[in-house]
Amino acid sequence: KAGVTQTPRYLIKTRGQQVTLSCSPISGHRSVSWYQQTPGQGLQFLFEYFSETQRNKGNFPGRFSGRQFSNSRSEMNVSTLELGDSALYLCASSPAGARETQYFGPGTRLLVL
Amino acid sequence: AQSVSQHNHHVILSEAASLELGCNYSYGGTVNLFWYVQYPGQHLQLLLKYFSGDPLVKGIKGFEAEFIKSKFSFNLRKPSVQWSDTAEYFCAVNPRGSQGNLIFGKGTKLSVKP
């Protein structure tokens, strides 16, 4: 089975722009979670989607949003980028979310200039 | 707020030394517990997990962890490390009923000298 894939792998944007990141889960997995990883804050949960519905949300501003499609692929969007949004954004998938292992993708490294 | 503490930021060991990485969490309810590892240049991989039952769980590559409920701890151990264990190790907690939300510790970087 193919693993979790994320595109693009690297991205450079400037302040004020917006960005969309994509995640394709492992085939058959219906839950997709997003995390932000920075040297200072570590890994922080952004949100989780299951069957096209956001089930859980972390403590991030409304500039961070996401969605999930009927094929379980997910996108996250960050609007009005700030320098502090520079991070590695990780996507993880699991069959249904609760009490299950999350499998992580390689991440998208975003640099905001 | 729920949090996970990993006591050591960077651990340096020689090959064949024993390893114990500490992990404590703050959450009063029932949790699922995980250890993930990130080898250089690779993405996060699951080492082991605890959901219920025997509090001593065994994972891949000779790693094990013990859940001590009274101490809110889930320490990772390996009796004899190898150079290939050089990586960053993350403890994570999922509060029961909180779908898809892993609360991670800040990670412990392990360097094993050959």
Protein architecture, described:
In chain A, the strands form 2 sheets. In chain A, strands 2, 4, 5, 6, 9, 10 and 11 form a 7-stranded mixed sheet that branches. Chain A has 113 residues and is an all-beta fold. The mean pLDDT of chain A is 94. Chain A is built from no helices and 11 strands. Chain A is globular, with a radius of gyration of 13 Å. Chain B has 114 residues and is mostly beta strands. Chain B has one domain (3-113): Immunoglobulin-like (Sandwich), CATH 2.60.40. In chain B, a hairpin with a 4-residue loop joins strand 8 and strand 9 (73-78). The radius of gyration of chain B is 14 Å and the shape is globular. The chains are: A mainly beta (113), B mainly beta (114).
How are the SSEs placed, and which strands pair?
The complex is a heterodimer of chains A (113) and B (114).
Chain A (H helix, E strand, L loop, with lengths): L4 E3 L2 E4 L5 E6 L6 E8 L3 E9 L2 E5 L6 E5 L5 E5 L8 E8 L8 E2 L3 E5 L1
Parallel strand pairs in A: 2-11
Antiparallel strand pairs in A: 1-3, 3-8, 4-5, 4-9, 5-6, 7-8, 9-10, 9-11
Chain B lengths: L2 E3 L4 E5 L4 E3 L2 E3 L4 E8 L6 E6 L5 E3 L5 E5 L4 E6 L8 E9 L7 E2 L3 E6 L1
Parallel strand pairs in B: 2-12
Antiparallel strand pairs in B: 1-4, 3-9, 5-6, 5-10, 7-8, 8-9, 10-11, 10-12
Q: What are the salient characteristics of this protein?
A:
heterodimer; A: mainly beta; 7-stranded mixed β-sheet; 4-stranded antiparallel β-sheet; 0% helix; 53% strand; B: 114 residues; Immunoglobulin-like; 6-stranded mixed β-sheet; globular
Residue-averaged pLDDT of chain B = 93
Average predicted local confidence, pLDDT of chain A: 94
| Cα end-to-end separation of chain B | 41 Å
- The fraction of residues assigned to DSSP E strands of chain A is over 45%
CATH topology of chain B: Immunoglobulin-like
Largest interface: pair, residues per side = A-B, 27 and 24 residues
Using the alpha-carbon principal axes, give the shape of chain B: globular
The SS-based structural class of chain A is: mainly beta
Main sheet properties of chain A: 7 strands, mixed
Approximate helicity band of chain B: under 10%
Outline of chain A = globular
Please compute the radius of gyration of chain B using only Cα atoms: 14 Å
Specify the number of helices of chain B: 0
CATH class of chain B: Mainly Beta
Count all strands of chain A and give the number.
Answer: 11
Gyration radius of chain A (Cα, Å) is: 13 Å
Low-confidence stretches of chain B: none
Instruction: Note the beta-strand portion of chain B.
Output: over 45%
Distance between the termini of chain A: 37 Å
Low-confidence stretches of chain A: none
